[in-house]
Design brief:
By secondary structure, this protein is an alpha/beta fold. The protein has 2 domains: about 1-175, Rossmann fold (3-Layer(aba) Sandwich), CATH 3.40.50; about 190-285, 2-Layer Sandwich (Pantoate--beta-alanine Ligase, Chain: A,domain 2), CATH 3.30.1300. Helices cover about 35% and strands about 20% of the residues. The strands form 2 sheets. The chain has a 6-stranded parallel sheet with strand order 1-4-3-2-5-6, with helices on both faces. The chain has a 4-stranded antiparallel sheet with strand order 7-8-9-10, with helices on one face. A hairpin with an 8-residue loop joins strand 9 and strand 10 (about 290). Bound molecules: pantoate (PAF).
Length: about 290
């Protein structure tokens, strides 16, 4: 595995790969890699000859009250994992490489509407930080395909929209959420949970699943389902940010054009903010009462 901190040598190596007709897959990350990230890498390997992973804790996507410095950095362990997974190129830029003139003067890429709802309401500017850095990384790596986790479903939806709107020639692949055996979605943030909180945390997924089951059974009072779920989480000791039943493509209210429903939740356990989602494909030939799970 070759490691690059500067942009030019990475681009020159990738140019050689392209000249040899090799297909390039890209997995952008912020490090502190867990099984969920490794699943992305494994999928990337099935899609291309060369896998490029980036590790960059992007300051532009952290709000003023979010502790960028406390974000876990585990570079030595990350490198070992990526090497064992057969990654050929690791890109490890510094903030000065990505934002040479500082963040205030950086041109930004903003996906309107989708970036403002759900996590975007409580984390203003977060998704613009994500889309800006992802579009820069796409321009640097110029991959054929890029792989993202479905756990960050809003992020994946926004990136798909950005790529479509800006005609960026990159195929976007989503990979199903990796979970612990009790259903908790794997996340870098799980490491912040106390033992007590860790025992409670799978309730987010369980609540999402029972809500999906209720919708699949034809229960269509979504407001009631959402407030029941929020109440369940609150009573268990979570501080829910949102629990929302949405159209999976627009992340807005479900309507007669909805083909897939996403049920998304974000809640704090102590100071740790957890997110998760489940989805439900609607059967196009049936009415509201008959839905089919994926
Ligand atoms: O999902 C993440 O880890 C980050 O948001 C990403 C896509 C690497 C951009 O910094």
């Amino acid at each position: 595995m070759r490691t690059y901190t500067a942009i030019a040598p990475l681009q020159s190596a990738l140019r050689n790969c392209r000249q040899q007709g090799q297909r390039i897959a890209f997995v952008p990350t912020m490090g502190n890699l867990h099984e969920g990230h490794l699943e992305l890498v494994r999928r990337a390997r099935t899609l291309a000859d060369i896998v490029v992973v980036s590790i960059f804790v992007n300051p532009l996507q952290f709000g003023p009250n979010e502790d960028l410095d406390a974000y876990p950095r585990t570079l030595a362990a990350d490198k070992e994992k990526l090497f064992s997974e057969g990654v050929q190129h690791l890109f490890l830029p510094e903030a000065e490489d990505i934002y040479p003139e500082g963040m205030a003067l950086q041109t930004q890429v903003q996906v309107p509407d989708l970036s403002e709802t759900l996590c975007g309401s409580s984390r203003p500017g977060h998704f613009t930080g994500v889309t800006t850095v992802v579009s820069k990384l796409f321009n640097i790596v110029q991959p054929d395909v890029a792989v993202f986790g479905e756990k960050d479903f809003q992020q994946l939806t926004i990136i798909r929209k950005m790529v479509a709107d800006l005609c960026i020639p990159v195929q976007i692949e989503g990979v199903a959420t990796a979970r612990d055996t009790d259903g908790l979605a794997k996340s870098s943030r799980n490491g912040y949970l106390s033992n007590e909180q860790r025992k409670l945390a799978p309730l987010i997924h369980a609540t999402l699943v029972s809500c999906r089951d209720a919708v699949a059974c034809g229960f269509d009072n979504f407001l009631q389902l959402e407030s029941h779920a929020r109440m369940q989480l609150l009573q268990a000791g979570f501080e829910p940010d949102y629990f929302a039943i949405r159209d999976a493509r627009t992340l807005r209210a479900v309507n007669e054009n909805t083909e897939e429903i996403a049920i998304l939740a974000a809640a704090r356990l102590g100071s740790t903010r957890l997110i998760d989602n489940v989805r439900l494909t609607l059967n196009p030939v049936s009415d509201w009462g008959m839905l089919a799970s994926p």
